[in-house]
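4.2 Preliminary Data

To establish feasibility before requesting continued support, the project team ran the inverse folding procedure on a target of 258 residues. The structure was first converted into the token representation described in Section 3, and no sequence information of any kind was made available to the design step. The complete token record follows.
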């Protein structure tokens, strides 16, 4: 009974940006929980192996791989259509697709700024806006992925932090509008999580970040999938419009000696 409340509340989910990292872990977790998942990213060749892996595993959920750039509204509309056609509806949307690069604010070009805001914020708008009609049919759930950068800021990532802060504001604002329609919108703001994306963004390997940049261990994709599963389950039924930071705590002081 208790465990049942922690199962994903729905039969069909889209997880954007699920060819790798956190998105892949969430898609695999949802499928293991019996949910039919649509895995999508900008490259069909990147998502096919993820969907095949789910299909070949013991996971009771099915998987469909769809190529979709979340910044392209036509592609997003086609993604939602393909989902409903294949699985008959849509219950959970995880807006995970995201990207960044590190740069001094002075060096961020208008194009660089637009690219990061488009992927992280406008992409979240496109997917949520396109999926709304279906999510409202069955009391759906939206889980957004932002970042601690969007809560407390981050040096050399002002474009990304601003976009993720926008995702947090979108989460809390939309939650007001959609709660009366039975759709819960919440958000996860991770700290450093060991993924390929971190390596690309920070220009260092996950091991180096762990050892030299932050005095704490990195999170794992499974820990973020745990939280996504919770937010997509009835166990979080009283959470609406929240952004939950999942960032561990830095070891800032040595324990005093007597
Ligand atoms: N890892 C961290 O430390 C961390 C911390 C805070 C927040 N986050 C957030 O958590 C989410 C996942 O991060 P991650 O580290 O797992 O990232 P990742 O390993 O770089 O994966 C990003 C995913 O997004 C896809 N993607 C990128 N641009 C896209 C676009 N325009 N349309 C559709 N898909 C796109 C990529 O696939 P293709 O290349 O195949 O398109 C990939 O599947 C992101 O929103 C990120 O900002 C991560």
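Position-by-position output of the design step:
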């Amino acid at each position: 009974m208790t465990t049942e409340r922690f199962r994903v509340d729905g039969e069909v989910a889209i997880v954007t940006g699920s060819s790798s990292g956190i998105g892949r872990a969430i898609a695999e977790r949802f499928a293991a929980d019996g949910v039919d998942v649509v895995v999508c990213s900008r490259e069909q060749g990147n998502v096919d192996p993820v969907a095949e892996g789910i299909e070949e595993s013991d996971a009771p959920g099915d998987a469909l791989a769809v190529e979709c750039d979340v910044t392209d509204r036509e592609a997003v509309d086609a993604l939602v259509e393909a989902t409903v056609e294949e699985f008959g509806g849509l219950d959970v949307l995880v807006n995970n697709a995201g990207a960044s690069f590190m740069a001094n604010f002075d060096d961020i070009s208008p194009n660089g700024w637009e690219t990061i805001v488009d992927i992280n914020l406008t992409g979240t708008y496109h997917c949520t806006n396109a999926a709304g009609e279906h999510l409202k049919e069955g009391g759906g759930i939206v889980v957004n992925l932002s970042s601690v950068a969007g809560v407390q800021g981050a040096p050399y990532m002002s474009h990304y932090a601003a976009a993720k802060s926008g995702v947090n504001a979108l989460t809390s604002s939309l939650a007001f509008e959609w709660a009366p329609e039975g759709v819960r919108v919440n958000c996860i703001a991770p700290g450093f999580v060991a993924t390929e994306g971190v390596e690309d963004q920070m220009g260092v390997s996950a091991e180096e970040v762990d050892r030299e940049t932050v005095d704490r261990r990195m999170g794992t994709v499974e820990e973020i999938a745990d939280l996504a599963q919770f937010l997509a389950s009835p166990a979080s039924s009283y959470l609406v419009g929240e952004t939950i930071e999942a960032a561990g705590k830095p070891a800032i002081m040595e324990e005093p000696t007597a």
